[in-house]
Amino acid sequence: MATPFTRRILHVDLTTGRLTTESPPESFYRTYLGGSAMGLHYILKALKPGVDPLGPENVLTLMVSVLTGAPISGQSRMTANALSPLVDGVGDSQCGLRAFTRSALQRLELRTDGMELASEMILKAARRGLSVADVPVPYAERLGEAKLNTIRDGWRHLRFLLLASPNYLFTIPGAVLTVLGVVTLALALPSNRIEIGEWTWQPVFAGSIFVIVGWNALLLGFASRLYTSARGITNEDAMLRFYRRYLGLELFVALGAAAIVLGIALDLLLLLAGDLGLSFTDLAAIAQTLIIVGANTVLVGFVTSLLEGS
Predict the structure, then answer these.
(1) Considering the domain boundaries, does residue 86 fall inside one?
(2) Shared domain check, 174 and 285
């Protein structure tokens, strides 16, 4: 049976950096069977009356029971004990046991501080190709009131997963909206309205909205991927490597300027040439859409340059 019980206790002095190892006798473990009891033993032994909970004299214990790892419900736990500044007494906190090698923990670069930490561990371990082993334990429903809040803690998980996945948050919806907008504008060109039974639809306005929102989402997705890859949240893909090596701000400026020039040229053509055999309203809407898309492209190009510099 795998068990963390090694008959050794490590003492760490954070002030001096000194490490010492203690090997208590078997009678100690028979007396203090659980992690909470062992932690409380060392706290009462080390602390003097009147110790400041936030001072260097306070003691933090991280203990596992001699039964941790046994096939018994509730035994795969680690206990943390310390003098709490909130209640002026000894605080007790438990968590499910997760073990890492030092190199794996450094590669994970964990940043969250709430219930979403579990999601961050799994997501980053998968993206970094780390090996994960699941040790099954019997499960029994916990008695008492749950401390988790479905909406608050559920949203924290969902928020982290969305922000850590810019392709699903920005790029894919942006691509769909952009294509839908282009198709809608193409349908609007022959006529400024589409008859659907008794209903009349003017698709030019919806098409412009789809293109502008979709293109902005694509730009935000690209900028987000630059940011998240720089922080180690996502892996750098071939497109980002190609962009960093061969492209840059100049590409965004060139694309944006081209769209702006094309939009202005279309406006001038409508002004000077008059009737082109197509819907005037639709062509004017396409021209304004090109100008807006071009301006946003240039602005996001400067934002990506700032992100790269940071």
Answers:
(1) yes
(2) yes
Q: Which range of residues forms the domain containing residue 48?
A: 1-97
From the list 298, 296, 303, 305, the residue with the least C-alpha distance to 211 is 296
Residue 134 phi/psi, 5-degree rounding, is -105, 120
Rounded to whole angstroms, the Cα distance separating 63 from 81 reads: 8
Instruction: Supply the CATH number for residue 43's domain.
Output: 3.60.9.10
> Is 181 in the same domain as 285?
yes
Letter for the amino acid at 78?
Answer: M
Q: What is the 3-state secondary structure (H, E, C) of 281-307?
A: HHHHHHHHHHHHHHHHHHHHHHHHHHH
Helix count (H) and strand count (E) of the chain?
11, 7
Q: What is the pTM of this model?
A: 0.60
Tokens of 117: 């930490």
Considering the domain architecture, whether residues 183 and 302 belong to the same structural domain is answered as yes
Q: Identify whether 148 is part of a domain.
A: no
Number of domains in the chain: 3
Residue 265 lies in a domain: yes
Which of 66, 97, 128 is at the close of a domain? 97
Contact in structure between 202 and 188 (CB atoms under 8 Å): yes
pLDDT in 10s for each residue of the chain, 310 residues:
444 567 788 889 888 889 989 888 888 888 887 788 888 888 888 888 888 888 888 888 888 877 776 655 555 677 888 888 877 778 777 766 677 888 888 888 888 777 778 788 888 888 888 888 777 666 666 666 777 778 888 888 888 888 888 888 899 999 999 999 998 888 777 666 666 666 766 777 888 999 999 999 999 998 888 888 877 778 887 888 888 887 788 888 999 999 999 999 988 887 776 665 666 777 888 889 999 999 999 999 898 888 776 5
